[in-house]
Amino acid sequence: MILELDCGNSLIKWRVIDAEGVRVGGGVASSDESLIGELRGMSRLSLRACRLVSVRSDEETRALMARLKDEFSIDTESAKPAQELAGVRNGYEDYSRLGLDRWLAVVGAFHLAGKACLVIDLGTAITSDFVAADGQHLGGFICPGMPLMRNQLRTHTRRIRYDDQQAEEALRDMSPGRSTVEAVERGCLMMLQGFVKGQVAIAEEYCGPEFEVFLTGGDAGLMRGVHPHVRIDPDLIFIGLAIACPLP
């Protein structure tokens, strides 16, 4: 079994795959300790290696790799920046500055599509990236995601107070809000939908008429129906990670 990790600034997305590449476990951990606990809780766990992508500091990433070595006696392969990988050419002026999670999502999307594509990751922040039919990464955009917009309003507007359950219930329809939670949640979602539609319009200009739209990240499901031809793939980064860090 192989452990795959996507280490963000606040959460760790993980999955375990078997020898055939089939997912046999996975989830989202809030800390290194939580990750170790969730892995210990898996029955018949037999890890032989780990590969990860991390946007954490080098020190934090090394600490996690050492912990995995101590707990499960496995070595960890970490994804590195690259100018070119699997037919995709990094479009940043300084290729090492492109976030590794973005880079791997782009590589994974192009591998699946085999043609021009637009990749939108809807997480704490939202990133979009454009890839031409020949594999040239054309750049992209970054903006706040739902969690950041929601938290900013909660932090800077004293009368906006509600919990996550209320937020979820507020998105059951998109009529004009008749409470603060409805107005905020539906307003933020409309901004996200507008952003996604705008990215599709840009892709039509830069990528030509034939391109694939990929949505990934925790809030990708909220964008269902925003465009008739989208692929929602929560494991897109892991597809790129397997290409960047092949294991025997």
Automatic annotation (TrEMBL):
Pfam families: Pan_kinase. Substrate binds at Y92, G99, L100, D101, R102, T180. Pathway: Cofactor biosynthesis; coenzyme A biosynthesis; CoA from (R)-pantothenate: step 1/5. Its main location: cytoplasm. SUPFAM superfamilies: Actin-like ATPase domain (SSF53067). A monovalent cation. Ammonium or potassium. It is found in: Cytoplasm. Its EC number is 2.7.1.33. Belongs to the type III pantothenate kinase family. Catalyzes the phosphorylation of pantothenate (Pan), the first step in CoA biosynthesis. This is Type III pantothenate kinase. It comes from Pseudomonas kuykendallii. The gene is coaX.
